[in-house]
Amino acid sequence: MISIAMNNIKKSFGVDVILEDISFTINEGERVALVGSNGTGKTTLFKIITKEVDYDLGDIFYAKDLSIGYLSQHVDIENDNTLIEEVLTVFEEVMLLEKEIRVLEHDISEAGSLEDHDKLDRLMKQYTKKTDEFTKINGYAYNSEAKGILIGLGFKEEDLSKKVRMLSGGEKTRVMLGKLLLKKPDILLLDEPTNHLDTDSVQSLEAFLRQYRGTIFVISHDRYFLDQLTNRTFELFNKSIRVYNGNYSYYVSQREIQAELDEKAYEENLAERKRQQEVIDQLKAFGREKQVKRARSREKLLDKMEVVEKPNYMKKRAKITFEPSVKSGKDVLKARGLSKSYGERCLFQNVDLDIYRGEKIALIGANGAGKSTLFNILLGVDKSFDGDIDFGTNVYPVYFDQERDDLQPDKTVLEEVWSTYPNFTETKVRNMLGAFLFTGDEVYKLIGTLSGGEKARISLLKLMLSDSNFLFLDEPTNHLDIESKEVLEDAITNYEGTVFVISHDRYFLNKVPDQILVLEDQSVKSYLGNYDYYIEKRAAEKAALEFANQSEDTTTKTQLKIQRKKDKEKEKEEKKLKKQITETEEAIHNTELEIENLNELLCLEEIYSNPEKVKEVAEQKSDKEKILHELMSTWEMLLEAQQD
Fold this sequence. Notes:
The protein is an alpha/beta fold. It has helices at about 40-50, 85-90, 90-115, 115-135, 140-150, 170-185, 200-210, 225-230, 250-285, 290-305, 370-380, 415-420, 425-435, 450-465, 480-495, 505-510, 530-550, 555-600, 605-610, 610-644; strands spanning about 1-15, 15-25, 30-35, 55-60, 70, 185-190, 215-220, 230-235, 240-245, 330-340, 345-355, 360-365, 385-390, 395-400, 470-475, 500, 515-520, 525. The relative contact order is 0.07.
């Protein structure tokens, strides 16, 4: 059943058209991601759905009695309620019913002592009715449910008595999110719900939303969160919507295919229009009346011919490998016995690190574990520590500071980079800027007018072109839109220097690092792989520990050996299955391209005018379609096997 449907919605602010021809449907229970560059109108679309903003044209359909819960990016709560009191306002009707039950209990006690049996009978009937109703609406658990939600969103028990007006903006957003989750509306509209949440809180939110029975429509820059939660993706692009029936990673893969198709359609349309114009020019050149008439006729057809606009679907990124101007030795950093304490509080002790040239290493851990402190020690900012640090030959470390104090606001983008590296040619500087999404006239933008994400791109580019060959990055993707995150990820991946990064961005941690260091329990543990590998290994370690604890008295060494062998075999099978899925997806993509090429052949005059050739191409197409059907069936079975 449809929850919300939009048909040809248009919205303008003055002369600026923000949304045009917006059409889509969202069914009950679906989890839909809304993505698009900053400024494309995502929040405006949400506000149209909630009727906070009017639209100019089109129609919107809502399911009957649909309740909508909306979490905006900017929340302000000003009252004297404590945190728990504010959240419990969601249960006003429940609490009112609870008070009525307490009053009835008092009246029943009084009627019993007076032996007023008629009144007692009447009160008992009311009491039974009220308590049944209270039970149905989960009245006995609302307090614990409210506390559970708040704890899951990162609040501590002692925070619950704080006044909400004293909370930070991020904390107020979490309070509003908690209230929404407790209201359980039919559809949740969530605008950046993971902002201001640490990793544990985000994972708690993911788990809750996966169990949520209603519909979810979410805007988020947290791509891993979208992958875990959503099953459809809507992209706002060129004022309209494109729909992809899959999660964020599926959308990314399909977006690349769509970009290629758009580019191909544009080039073919341009070539055909050019060919038609050349024919017209040749006919006119003859100067004869018959040819001139034919030229005019062709001109009319050319005027009516559809013009495919040049696609701006994805800005072209130059594939550039960033090699530091000074190459370090193989050994970049060796640290032994690093320890740091503040009074009686120990952050970490006896930490050993070995970092080699070209490695991309991520440092993760809970807030307050000491990640930034470890960075400051390695960079020489904090000199109050125990242990030894040795940098290798020709190692030049640098810290990526998101405050961007190194940029001159009155310079253009081109001037900012070129003045730092005056020996580069303008072409080289432009190519480098193109890799960071600054193309055409965008290189003449003033630094002072750039967004935070654009400034971060410029700063990282300058660092990658410098003598520095060891980058320390502290939360480099914070506050960036998805497009900027993708640029940074590609740049860091292609960087031939060494990278040490702190990040909570799980999608980034999956894509960039080849080693995860976990700072917890006052020590550092290494996992040679990306974030998903780390999660798998941690789960395996936890399971093994639980298994060992349960079987400590009864399990023999032989049984443990058998279990380890089974685990290795299972891991081997999982890797094999993952490889089969990847190979099948590539085969599906190639077969779809072959079918598309055969469709284009059938449209050629030399083919469709020749019955034998038509038959031959049609048979080839039919064979490919059968192969595609078999591949899709295989792919579905492999996915089911992976889920099992």
